[in-house]
């Protein structure tokens, strides 16, 4: 969101944000239009909420339809008179009152799909350690049966009832255009019954630094992102173990990011039990620190078990001249050009991942060539300029029929 705001402002647009009041927000002259959080201004995630009558009521309201959101957004529109709206996230934290209000105020808009939340209660098409697409066939009650929302029957039932309510009211029919960073997500939506003509492919963009260092630390690799089971980091550790024990190759693996504390503890215990002393848990880093570690790495690895939707970490890696090893599903076959910008491996297969990692470590000349081609690929396909003109083209088409 903030990258897009910067891009639009650099092209002389005024950006009028509308969001929830949180203490970590960037300050804006439009803060007084923002809506109250479900709990308090320090709590961003449902799992961290302190349950009270107020938070319970607001959770229900934001799942079904929020009058507070409708009133505040209406006031913002009346006071600023925007030409167009880009909706990034609204389900469960703001509610469909966002799209209803935009429609009522005759503001043309598009909705960006960041995940699979329109067709999956867990947002990631993943359940019980594997990909799950049961609800995509319209059998939404499976999400209650399997407690797909926060592993809770209650939360899952609320989400199911809210989705049924939204469908009954026809809220989603008000959306004339979705944009998605990956073609894969669009295909999943179409397979679930959504009309193909409602979608536009709009890949995310990455800024390429002016001065990129191509100096790599031998045998250093990196993963950056959330440390959660669905991201498959445990398979990356297994592959590191295979390289050490089977091929006598010791890699320095840097893990950048935070996530599920229990899962992180399991990863650290695995490292201790298997003498993986060169695995470094760095936690969340600022951009400057993160980019330095990415640039110094021979390649990055994203071993996701779930279907990723063009994560920023993948684009950042390629934009910094660091090739990518990614799973052969989700968005990665669109992004990773074999032995050109990276290599694909079989999801969940640590042995295959170890083979691919060994291949790149054994071929430093190829890795160097891939570093140069990765930067070129980002400049040609994921530049801010290309994204801006593609976005403006979609916006003009929507406005012409509004």
Q: Could you explain the architecture of this structure?
A:
The chain has about 400 residues and is α/β, with parallel strands linked by helices. It has 2 domains: about 1-205 and about 385-400, Rossmann fold (3-Layer(aba) Sandwich), CATH 3.40.50; about 220-380, Rossmann fold (3-Layer(aba) Sandwich), CATH 3.40.50.2000. Helices cover about 45% and strands about 10% of the residues. A 6-stranded parallel beta sheet has the order 9-8-7-10-11-12, with helices on both faces. It has a 4-stranded parallel beta sheet with strand order 1-2-5-6, sandwiched between helices. Helix 3 runs parallel beside helix 4 and helix 8 packs across helix 13. The longest helix has 18 residues, at about 365-380. The protein starts with a helix and ends with a helix. The model has no long low-confidence stretch (mean pLDDT about 95).
Summarize this structure as a short list of keywords or feature phrases.
single chain; 402 residues; alpha/beta; Rossmann fold; 2 domains; six-stranded parallel sheet; four-stranded parallel sheet; 12 strands; globular
Shape call? globular
Average residue pLDDT: 94
Helix content: 40-55%
Return the CATH topology of the largest domain: Rossmann fold
Secondary-structure blueprint:
Blueprint: H1 2-10, H2 53-64, H3 67-80, E1 85-87, H4 97-104, E2 109-112, E3 126-127, E4 130-131, H5 142-145, H6 153-169, E5 178-180, H7 183-191, E6 199-201, E7 220-224, H8 233-247, E8 252-256, H9 261-273, E9 279-283, H10 287-296, E10 299-302, H11 312-319, E11 324-327, H12 332-335, E12 342-345, H13 350-361, H14 364-381, H15 384-401
Parallel strand pairs: 1-2, 2-5, 5-6, 7-8, 7-10, 8-9, 10-11, 11-12
Antiparallel strand pairs: 3-4
């Amino acid at each position: 969101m903030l990258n897009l705001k910067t891009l639009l402002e650099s092209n002389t647009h005024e950006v009028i944000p509308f969001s929830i009041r949180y203490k970590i927000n960037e300050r804006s002259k439009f803060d007084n239009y923002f809506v109250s959080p479900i709990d308090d201004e320090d709590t961003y995630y449902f799992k961290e909420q302190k349950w009270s009558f107020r938070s319970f009521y607001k959770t229900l309201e934001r799942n079904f339809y929020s009058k507070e959101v409708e009133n505040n957004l209406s006031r913002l529109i009346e006071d600023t008179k925007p030409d167009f709206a880009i909706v990034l996230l609204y389900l469960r934290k703001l509610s469909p009152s966002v799209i209803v209000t935009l429609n009522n105020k005759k503001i043309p808009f598009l909705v960006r799909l960041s995940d699979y939340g329109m067709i999956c209660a867990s947002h990631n098409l993943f359940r019980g350690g594997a990909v799950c697409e049961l609800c995509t066939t319209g059998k939404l009650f499976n999400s209650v049966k399997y407690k797909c929302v926060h592993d809770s029957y209650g939360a899952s039932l609320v989400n199911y009832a809210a989705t049924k309510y939204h469908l009954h009211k026809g809220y989603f029919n008000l959306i004339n255009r979705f944009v998605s960073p990956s073609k894969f997500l669009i295909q999943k939506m179409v397979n679930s019954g959504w009309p193909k003509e409602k979608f536009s492919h709009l890949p995310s963009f990455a800024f390429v630094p002016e001065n990129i260092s191509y100096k790599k630390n031998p045998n250093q690799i990196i993963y950056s992102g959330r440390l959660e089971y669905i991201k498959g980091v445990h398979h990356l550790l297994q592959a590191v173990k295979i390289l050490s024990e089977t091929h006598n190759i010791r890699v320095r693996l840097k893990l950048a990011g935070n996530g599920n504390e229990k899962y992180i503890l399991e990863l650290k215990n695995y490292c201790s039990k298997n003498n993986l002393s060169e695995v470094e848990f760095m936690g969340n880093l600022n951009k400057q620190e993160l980019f330095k570690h990415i640039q110094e790495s021979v390649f990055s690895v994203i071993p996701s078990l779930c279907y990723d939707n063009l994560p920023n970490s993948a684009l950042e890696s390629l934009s910094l001249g660091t090739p990518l090893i990614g799973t052969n599903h989700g968005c990665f076959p669109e992004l990773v050009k074999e032995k050109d910008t990276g290599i694909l491996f079989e999801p969940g297969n640590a042995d295959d991942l170890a083979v691919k990692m060994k291949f790149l470590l054994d071929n430093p000349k190829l890795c160097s060539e891939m570093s140069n081609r990765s930067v070129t690929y980002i400049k040609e396909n994921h530049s801010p300029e290309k994204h801006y003109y593609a976005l403006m083209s979609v916006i003009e088409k929507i406005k012409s029929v509004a």
